[in-house]
Amino acid sequence: MQIKSRSVPHARRLARVGAELSKAARLRLRWMDHYAAHGQNAALTCRYFGISRQTFYRWRRRYDPHRLESLEERSHRPRRVRQPTWSGELVLAVLHLREQYPRWGKDKLVVLLRQAGWQVSTSMVGRILRRLKARGVLREAPRTRVSARKRRWRRPYAVRKPKDYGVQEPGDLVQVDTLDLRPLPGVVLKHFTARDVVSRWDVLEAHTRATATTAAGFLEALEARMPFPVKAIQVDGGSEFQAAFEEACQQRGIRLFVLPPRSPKLNGCVERAQRTHTEEFYEVVPFSLEVAALNQELLAWERIYNTVRPHQALGYLTPQQFLRQHQRQRKEAECHSSTGRVQRLVPRGAVVVQSSAPTLSQGIPKESRWRLLRPTA
User: Model pTM greater than 0.85?
Assistant: First the structure.
């Protein structure tokens, strides 16, 4: 036997094509290598790779060891493609009308074509336009903006609420919103509502205008009438919550979160409060149209809302009762964490004896245990 060369024929070409194969083609090449290495056992190869024999034999018939690209997917394009049935004159007519009326679509152009005597459908005009655009024959006319663009105000302090911002304590997040009131023709009032998300405590105020100055004044009333410190406020993108209002929040160290455009659902608590105040106050109480007298009436309703009206979201507690309960639970939790043991209430007349034997209560070891004995006769 005479050996003329030690290299495999077309080895460089095979190596280059193998590097250019897709991931699916390289997997099929592994099928063929496994099939050849295990005595051409197709059943074993199919079980090893979890494929059907039909799939394996189909690719086995296509496989050419000298053309690894034979393991690539073939084009699924139909062999016979539907050819267009329109004439060149119709294409020129559509192109002429579209260039004359560049903002008109197929629905309007087909009306003009039928008036000119062409028997054509709307879908055919659409296909003609699409093919003209694909060939580069039809180019859309550049748009010239003539309307004044809305200037986007730069927010120096307000930001989007971070996703990891937790709301657990009263004052962590207060939502503020405005409501237009039109009790009589030509009479417009602006109603401001601030709601604490945790305790449902509301602060209400009315003004003749909703400006940044009036919103900043409402911020002072908000801080004065909230029974807890306000840490963050969330508002929408209205102009009344910019400029002076934003500066007032920054000066007081209150974080200001602004909602994304067209997303009032993110301020759902205060939106629901607006409905409640409309249905339970403005629609049933003959309120004054003067702002000073109306604010006094709103202050009385605010006291009823926060101290008398049961809230379903709070387990039918008032916001005042909820705050007292919350403060009491917080003090008990702080006391338990500082002493390291659970305090129990001792009934009157009972005798308390300290036991020196160490015990376990709820998995917490204690050096001494208080034992409750019944009172002696």
Answer: no
